Hints:
Shape: elongated
Number of helices: 3
Low-confidence stretches: none
Largest sheet: none
Structural class: mainly alpha
Helix content: 55-70%
Mean pLDDT: 77
Distance between the termini: 125 Å
Amino acid sequence: xxxxxxxxxxxxxxxxxxxxxxxxxxGPVRTMSSGVPGGSGDNIIYFLxxxxxxxxxxxxxxxTVNSDQARFHDRLTEISARPKVEWEPKPWPPKGSExxx
Length: 101
C-alpha cells in the first residue's frame, strides 16, 4: 500500500499535465469561417476567382457593345428602308372552310 502511495505521489504531476492537455484538445482547433473574404485561405481564393470572372464578363460585354455600334446602326437603316406592306385583316368567317349544305 505504501508502494502505491509513493508511486502516485511521484506520478501525480505527470498525470495532471497529460489530463489537462487531453482536455484542451477536445474542442475544434480551427475557427469556423464567417463567410467574408479573407476569413480563411479558401475564401479569398473563391473571392478572387468570382470577382475576376465577373470583371472579365463586364469587360467583354462593354467591348462587344461598343465594337458593334456601326453594325447595329447599319442594320437599323436597312430594316427601316424595307418597303412596308399595309396590314389587312382576313375576312371573317374564312371562305372555303365551310361546306355548303
